[in-house]
Amino acid sequence: MLPTHQIPTHTLLVLSLSIFALSHNSYAVSFQGNIETLRFEAKTNIPAVKVIGEVPKTTISLNVDGTELKNAETKIPVDDLKTGMAIRDRHMKERIFQTPDGKFPDIKFVLSGPVKFTAGTETLVKGLLTIRGTEAEFLSKCVFQGEGLTFAAFCKGEVELSKHQIAPPSHLGVKVQPKVTLAFHVRGNGNESKK
Fold first, then answer.
1. Which residues contact 174 (CB under 8 A, 6 or more apart)?
2. If one looks up domain 27-194 in CATH, what number appears?
3. Cα–Cα distance between 155 and 153 in angstroms, integer?
4. Can you spell out the DSSP letters for 77-142?
5. Three-state SS for 142?
6. Are the C-beta atoms of 135 and 107 separated by less than 8 Å?
7. Domains of the chain, residue spans
8. Phi/psi of residue 77, each to 5°?
9. Which residues contact 167 (CB under 8 A, 6 or more apart)?
10. Which tens digits make up the pLDDT trace of 9-68?
């Protein structure tokens, strides 16, 4: 092996850049996470009456690169939304989620673009939410924990029914307010995959 002083300068430069690149490889993590809890709350024209419900644990596709959420997608069947009362569930399904042709398309969410986050700090997350086949922007404020392989987010946002061409339903004089609050917890553990 040649002494260092005899190695051409351009070779040393290439070696240095190669070592730097190897030591700074970044990894994206793609995995199926879970929406551990998703609760919704709709206020009405009567302060003491609220419609509160939840969705059972459901999967969400995530792509996380360190402290950047690059992608998130999920879909929820309408039948998964439960309020604890069968007749109220049926009314909700028919009056909010049924299309004019009698179908009940899944609720879908797709992240609008990459989101940089800092663990423990509230971050605004923008996405596209599709309800009854109508897509509209959905904004939520999320507090993230962990990064990469261990990832969690606690989020809260509001759905404006009018943006999805949905008129607030009413029953026996009780009318739902035009905004519905969503609170959800996303968590996942993934397998590392080189970008």
1. 44, 45, 46, 49
2. 2.40.128.110
3. 6
4. -GGG-B-S-HHHHHHHIIIII--TTS--PPEEEEE-S-EE--TTSEEEEEEEEEETTEEEEEEEEE
5. strand
6. no
7. 27-194
8. -65, 140
9. 161
10. 443 333 333 333 333 344 567 777 889 999 999 999 999 999 999 998 899 998 888 889
Which pair of tokens denotes residue 195? 């970008």
47 vs 30: CA distance, rounded Å: 43
- Tell me the residue type at 131: I
pLDDT for the residue 191: 55
Residue ranges of the alpha helices (H) in 31-158? 86-92
Please report where in the chains the tokens 């690149």 appear, as a residue: 21
- For residue 157, is pLDDT > 80? yes
Extract the tokens encoding 127: 């996405």
Is the CB of residue 174 less than 8 Å from the CB of residue 43?
no
- The pTM (predicted TM-score) of the whole model is 0.80
Task: Specify the range with the lowest mean pLDDT, choosing from 66-75, 150-159, 183-192.
Answer: 183-192
